[in-house]
Amino acid sequence: MRYLSTRGEAAQLAFDDVLLAGLATDGGLYAPFAYPHVAPKDIAALAGVPYADAAARLIAPFLTEEASRAALPAQTAAAYTSFRHRAIAPLTQIADNLFVLELFHGPTLAFKDLAMQLLGRMMNDVLEKRNLRATIVGATSGDTGAAAIEAFRGLPRVDVFILYPHGRVSDVQRRQMTTVADENVHTIALQGTFDDAQNILKRLFRNQTFRERVCLAGVNSINWARVVAQMVYYFTSGVALGAPHRHVSFAVPTGNFGDVLAGYIAKHMGLPIERLIVATNANDILARALATGRYEPRGVTQTQSPSMDIQLSSNFERLFFDACARDHAAVRAAFASLDQSGAFEIPAPALSAIRAEFDAMSVGEAETTDEIARSWRDAGYVLDPHTATGVRAARARLAQDPATPVIALSTAHPAKFPEAIERAIGHRPRLPDALAAKLEGPERFTVLENDEARVAAFISERARAAAA
Ligand SMILES: *Cc1c(COP(=O)(O)O)cnc(C)c1O
């Protein structure tokens, strides 16, 4: 498999190069030339297969080189040993035809571990093979940073710099990043929002001098390898509920659109998915875009689900690319308009292509709290506030179509958001002991103003790849 940029003006690359590059040099995102097809009998054969083995089977066709395919089973096996649940991504039923897919059993208690633990191993192996060092710079609204730090801490060939919006991530999220003592880990508290952090990151990637100087590699949710790693649990959970013989729908708490895009990829690989339901919080750009056809970011509102407090859903560009029948010029025009006038119109055929597969629903703060209380009352199950938006959207779907099971992706452990849970059900969930102990250490972070040059200088001074 080879990869092309959505904007059509960057070099076509092999998987290993896409893995290191993150964003394409033309500002676009890498997409595979085609989605590999998984035959119904091969989907059925995933039943009972350990998660790491299923991951190796499903991801292999996306790799370009035979040597990378040969290394994959060992990488997936290593990636999932740090998980606290044997099933890695277990399903729990909380109502008729309503299932929660628990994606929070990894080291940072959020779903990002599922992709990041694998990405760390894959990147390390590529760098070893090429005898290179790399600098990882990520922007996080909370969970990506911690997951990246856990995946890359202590690796000799990589330095990690994580930008997070100062004062806008939860206590647990911040401590997960700042109490890590490894010297290759650097946390930057940016005086701005997550979108500011993401914008700086995008500009750093477009700054060719900086990019080469520090051997910049990206691990944000735009990294294709992350999307591919997330595709796996759509298959394993679908199979657990009877795929390929039965259709399922998925409700996905969404911010940057990476997780739900992975569902779309799974569907295009052959998994029988009925609907993909995008659940947003009050930051509802995706729900508005699907309803009106106009993609228009507004100011970011802080909510109790901070990892979804995003207005620019970067991965949406990959869906838009497909929906426009892979017309690079249409993608360039849309994103130029977004840069210049702050919005673009989704062409009518593209909008109907998107609506044919996706529903979207914005879930407000009161409804989120109400959903946490309801699932606790009805099923004795505690949802984190991100997951609650997905479960709410899943219930709305079931009211329309009670016959098709809906799997709501649970993206974080409730103990990461104790205030929100206490507000809803009157008590705080407990952090797993191993994590609680880890968060006790002293915090290390640097506050920087919202300024690209300042951030670039900070990184250049500290990245070991720049010293060579
Ligand atoms: C990152 C994150 C999301 C949003 O996922 P995207 O891939 O950005 O859409 C939702 N919930 C939690 C807990 C997250 O960490």
UniProtKB/TrEMBL annotation:
Belongs to the threonine synthase family. Pathway: Amino-acid biosynthesis. The modification N6-(pyridoxal phosphate)lysine is found at residue 112. Residues 2-80 form the Threonine synthase N-terminal domain. It catalyses: O-phospho-L-homoserine + H2O = L-threonine + phosphate. InterPro entries: Ser/Thr_deHydtase_PyrdxlP-BS, Thr_synth_N, Thr_synth_N_sf, Thr_synthase-like, Threonine_Synthase, TrpB-like_PALP_sf. Keywords: Amino-acid biosynthesis, Lyase, Pyridoxal phosphate. This is Threonine synthase. Pfam families: THR4_C, Thr_synth_N. One of its GO terms (biological process) is threonine biosynthetic process. One of its GO terms (molecular function) is pyridoxal phosphate binding. Gene3D superfamilies: 3.40.50.1100, Threonine synthase, N-terminal domain. CDD domains: Thr-synth_2. It is an enzyme of class 4 (lyase). The lineage of its organism: Bacteria, Pseudomonadati, Pseudomonadota, Alphaproteobacteria, Hyphomicrobiales. Its cofactor is pyridoxal 5'-phosphate. Its EC number is 4.2.3.1.
